[in-house]
Amino acid sequence: MFRAVRKKARAHGIGLHTPEEVYHITKRACGTVAGVLGDDKFLGGEQPCTADCAMFGILAQLMWNAQGSRYQALLTEVYPSLARYCMSMKERVYPDWDSKLQPTTHR
User: InterPro entries per the record (predicted)?
Assistant: First the structure.
């Protein structure tokens, strides 16, 4: 069973690159997105478009699910325009983000 899972994972590209290669691929991709974004607030200009939603879904993983990691630092230190972009999308499209992510107490 392990071989079958590994074979399927490799078919999807998982495990083909070292962690260092993954980081450099991610860094290059972030640079490309930052270049496309330029000084605009959103990829679609002043208003978010479908591409913004897709890109936010990816960048949000780096920004908030990898806190304290070098991936988050890519956005906050290397490409701060992408960190601002994430915050703009979060505030514009998901104003209830913080309240939705609060832990709930179950009784």
Answer: Glutathione-S-Trfase_C_sf, Metaxin_GST, Mito_Protein_Transport_Metaxin
Q: Does residue 80 form part of some domain?
A: yes
In a domain? residue 105? no
The pTM of this model reads: 0.81
Q: Residue 74 falls within a domain, yes or no?
A: yes
Distance CA(20)–CA(4), nearest Å, equals 26
DSSP of 24-44, one letter per residue? Answer: HHHHHHHHHHHHHHTT-SBTT
List all residues 6 or more positions away from 9 whose beta carbon is below 8 Å from its beta carbon: 15
pLDDT in tens, 51-101: 999 999 999 999 999 889 999 999 999 999 999 999 999 999 999 988 887
Query: What whole-number distance in Å separates Cα of residue 107 and Cα of residue 76?
Result: 38
Asked whether residue 104 is assigned to any structural domain, the reply reads no
For 94, phi then psi, to 5°, come to -125, 65
Q: Which residue has the higher pLDDT, 5 or 29?
A: 29
Domain count, the chain: 1
